[in-house]
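Lecture notes, continued. The same structure-token format from the folding unit now serves as the input rather than the output. Read the line below as a description of shape only.
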């Protein structure tokens, strides 16, 4: 499925990017699928969260989310179309 829209005008066809299109990673279906695959992989390696202490789980989640937020902010700035004021 293409993100381009073709406009037919008297002077010829013009390809315009679809303004409603979003990145693949912004899709809730893709995000849910990734979580499902991660949970499936956890069961393959016999990861039992019940054996872990609550503090260990919270610390791990905090570290992962912090790292993801850092990477997200760097990528966002590098791919930004407009400069900061």
């Amino acid at each position: 499925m293409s993100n381009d829209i073709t406009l037919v005008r008297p002077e010829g066809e013009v390809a315009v990017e679809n303004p409603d299109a979003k990145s693949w990673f912004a899709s809730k279906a893709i995000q849910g699928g990734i979580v499902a695959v991660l949970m499936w992989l956890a069961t393959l390696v016999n990861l039992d969260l019940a054996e872990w202490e609550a503090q260990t789980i919270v610390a791990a989640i905090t570290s992962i989310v912090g790292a993801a937020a850092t990477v997200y902010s760097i990528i966002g700035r590098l791919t930004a179309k407009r400069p900061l004021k």
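Point for the exam: DSSP finds two helices and two strands in the chain.
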